[in-house]
Amino acid sequence: MAGFDDSLVREYFEVSGFFVRQSRKYAVQSRRKRADEEGDLLVINPSPRRDIVLPFQLFGSDLPGLSAAVVAVKGWHTTKAITPTMIRKGDLLEFVRKEAVDAAKEAFAELTPAEGLTLSKILVLPGIPSQEPQRAESITLLKNSGVDHVITFRTILENLLQNVESNQSYARSDTLQLLRLLRVYDMVKPAQLELFGGSNPSTR
């Protein structure tokens, strides 16, 4: 399942104009990850906009302001939101360790000069609590641990569903082809898409 989650996130950034590099193709299970294995994806924006102030929770309209990031994908889909208790366990946050960040910067040095590179640490997760005080506590814990931004899977799915075209064949992407077929066979109703693009801020 981790491979599919990574593919969703990869497509999201690529559709938004980013170059994406997967840090590894294998899964680490029987040992602790090395520093260079913590981040799942490295993303870089070839033409970042400097006039956009990035919020903690990112949506589609915020991505042009992002220059580069190491992205950790946590597809824990048995829950809709990560709780403060889950954050305190620390399993989400290995990718923000100094060694992991240094390893990511070395990887970026192969692609772009490291001097002046703003490297963000992004956590992709099912969601953060919508109710207070759990929401504020979760955000504080993540920020204090070194996470710069979060993106939810709901944001990613809504954005991809809006960008995929029913009359296009995405033969080179199983992920986009699946989302296209959901639209072709009316598994996603037009009313739902209108709702996603309306008052919901996740597709701004």
Describe this structure in words.
There is one protein chain. The two termini are about 30 Å apart. The protein is built from seven helices and five strands, in the order αβββααβαβααα. The protein has helices at about 1-15, 85-90, 100-110, 135-145, 155-165, 175-185, 190-195, and strands at about 20, 40-45, 70-75, 120-125, 150. It has one domain. The chain has about 200 residues and is α/β, with parallel strands linked by helices. The longest helix is centred in the first third of the chain and has 14 residues, at about 1-15. It has a five-stranded mixed sheet with strand order 1-2-3-4-5, sandwiched between helices. Helices cover about 35% and strands about 10% of the residues. α1 packs across α5 (about 155-165). β4 (about 120-125), α4 and β5 form a beta-alpha-beta unit.
Summarize the SSE layout with pairings.
Blueprint: H1 2-15, E1 19-22, E2 41-44, E3 68-73, H2 84-88, H3 98-109, E4 119-125, H4 134-145, E5 149-152, H5 153-163, H6 174-184, H7 190-197
Helix pairs in contact: 1-5
Average pLDDT, all residues = 80
SS class:
alpha/beta
Helical fraction equals 25-40%
Secondary-structure element series: HEEEHHEHEHHH
Number of helices: 7
What is the end-to-end distance? 28 Å
Q: What is the number of beta strands?
A: 5
Strands side by side in the biggest sheet: 1-2-3-4-5
Oligomer: single chain
Strand content: 5-15%
**What general outline do the C-alpha atoms trace?**
globular
The tally of domains stands at 1
Low-confidence stretches: 34-38, 195-204
| Biggest sheet descriptor | 5 strands, mixed
Radius of gyration (CA) equals: 17 Å
